[in-house]
Automatic annotation (TrEMBL):
Keywords: ATP-binding, Kinase, Nucleotide-binding, Transferase. Residues 178-245 form the Thiamin pyrophosphokinase thiamin-binding domain. GO terms for molecular function: ATP binding; kinase activity; thiamine binding; thiamine diphosphokinase activity. GO terms for biological process: thiamine diphosphate biosynthetic process; thiamine metabolic process. It comes from the Eukaryota. Pfam families: TPK_B1_binding, TPK_catalytic. It is an enzyme of class 2 (transferase). This is Thiamine pyrophosphokinase.
Length: 253
């Protein structure tokens, strides 16, 4: 997944927001993890679900799925997994009646997100993309913790897997050192022009093409200068970095 000078990493931030027919098979090698966060964009969530071939609710994520969709037959999880301290008894009973598997991992030194990743790899060894439905709009410690775990899993534990974070308003992915070509067709109405390149994991030097305010060998770091609220102005943009950065783009809700 590392880029080279001649072969940039090709990324499609809007890919999993595209409409997929109800009842169609999920994309091969794609999994969905539902975290314990409100599901406000029901139609957008349906597309994430349909693109995935394996769907896991991380503990209280099952409550959120149930609150949003009840026991709709086309939106059942394949597995509910975690330490189960957040899973409502009534929700568990409702899903178990429909033969949804529930498994427990009592380890208190790992989060439900970390437990979910391990379980996805176990059930789908050929996984290439993991879609994460979560939130950055609640507690600050949980939001920062999620961005930390996203980095850890992508960078150190599963570097061959691409992690996509879908929050209330954005799609976010980790860009590793090298050159990335991101396909951003705004005309499809799936993403908006607002985006950012965030040096959350250390100082970086970045160069861009296809943004309203492009930069060249531009140093960026927390406490220094940061590219937020920039605008996409092309159907594809190029970002080159010498250190890991978080790319985020606004969804068209």
């Amino acid at each position: 997944m590392m880029a080279t000078e001649s072969t940039p990493v090709q990324l499609h931030p809007a890919k999993y927001l595209q409409a997929k027919a109800e009842g169609s098979n999920g994309d091969s090698g794609v999994a969905l993890i539902v975290l314990n966060s409100p599901i406000s964009d029901h139609e957008g969530f349906r597309q994430l679900y349909r693109h995935a071939s394996f769907r896991l609710c991380a503990d209280g994520g099952a409550n959120r799925l149930y609150d949003a969709f009840g026991t709709e037959s086309d939106l059942l999880p394949d597995l509910i997994h975690g330490d189960l301290d957040s899973l409502d008894d009534a929700v568990r009973e409702a899903y178990e009646k429909l033969r949804v598997q529930v498994s427990e991992d009592p380890d208190q030194y790992s989060t439900d997100f970390g437990k979910a990743i391990k379980k996805v790899i176990e059930h789908l060894p050929e996984v290439s993309d993991i879609l994460i439905h979560g939130s950055l709009g609640g507690r600050v410690d949980q939001g920062i913790g999620l961005l930390h775990e996203l980095y850890r899993e992508q960078k150190f534990r599963h570097p061959k897997v691409r992690f996509w974070l879908f929050t209330e308003a954005s799609v976010s992915i980790l860009l590793q050192p090298g050159r990335s070509l991101l396909h951003t067709p705004l005309s499809k109405g799936l993403i908006k022009r607002n985006m950012g390149i965030l040096p959350l994991y250390g100082p970086a030097n970045i160069s861009t093409q296809g943004l309203e305010w492009d930069v060249d060998s531009w140093p960026t770091e927390m406490g220094g200068q940061v590219s937020t609220s920039n605008h996409i102005v092309a159907d594809s943009i190029t970002i080159e970095t010498d250190h890991d950065v978080l790319f985020t783009v606004e969804k068209a809700l």
